[in-house]
Protein: CASP-like protein
Amino acid sequence: MASDQKPADLETETTKAVEEPPRPPKSTSLDKCVTVDVVLRVVLFAATLTSLLVLVYQQSVKAPPRHRLSLRRRGGGQVQSLARFHLSCRYLAAAASVTCLYSIITILASISVLLKPAFNTSFLIFFAIWDVVILGVMASATGAAGAVAYIGLKGNRHTNWAKVCNVYDKFCQHLAGSIAVALFASIVLVFLIVLSVLSLHKKIPK
Amino acid sequence: MASDQKPADLETETTKAVEEPPRPPKSTSLDKCVTVDVVLRVVLFAATLTSLLVLVYQQSVKAPPRHRLSLRRRGGGQVQSLARFHLSCRYLAAAASVTCLYSIITILASISVLLKPAFNTSFLIFFAIWDVVILGVMASATGAAGAVAYIGLKGNRHTNWAKVCNVYDKFCQHLAGSIAVALFASIVLVFLIVLSVLSLHKKIPK
Structure:
């Protein structure tokens, strides 16, 4: 009986070894990287959506299109000025929209990488390159909106550029919030690129 | 004699084989990448230095410090306004200075990588991460200066932000040139990061 059991035990052990091959530690750490990537991309999505919604919300609350038009016809200078101030922040709204859409696409792509790790390297290259382009757009839009908002807040008495924020305090608070969130999104993008670079580095044999 | 010559020939061949081992194609392509990297960094240095010099030059020509001070005491509004307009572009000057200094350091580092390819991977990681940070700074500075210059060029009649460029035409031309070169530097930084990522990708075994 004892001699019969031995081959059976060996067989079971062999089957176990075939069924559960020991996973290399590298792929586990890469899985962790992809998980962090997904989390950061969700944060990026939330940040850009918040920035966009705050910009759109304040525009709709302060000066709805019809009201703006009727006031324009009557010569309503103040509401027009607000709308005009908004125009200079259109670039930020456009950049936030593009980044938001991009983050949705890359969240789905990252999840697909988690499910099928074979495409990992191709996606890492794709992510790293496009993240850099999106970072450039977001950073410049944040800088542009920040500069205009600063003039709106402080004015410039030498060039006779008047303050706007002492009249539209809530508008400026919203705008500042939107810019702060956009800046946060840019920093998240920097972290995402660094993560992609480090993930690529992990794949290089030492 | 013929039998004596044969071992001598063999020895020469063996020595040749030891002296000149066939170089793998990968390292050649990586050398090319490092060469392109050095060239791009030299272009980056030239672009940021040009941007910085144009900003500093126009400031010194238009309003030298003593003249500015004396006019300020007398209440010289126009020259003050120019100086004030400059202040809003200080961020671009600071960003260009930092990028210029950074490009010098990385040119030297890239040349050292060409001489000692053993440090290649470590430098690629270093370059990629710092390039991303510098790109964020340069892009936001370009955006900020561009936004302020646009207000200076077009004005904003609704917020009573007057044009400045119809008075200081040469100043605005210089500023536009400086911003254009800064934008070019940002694009060069994008290419540098993409190059680093692709170089890392080449080192991954397929």
In short: Residues 41-61+91-202 of chain A form one domain.
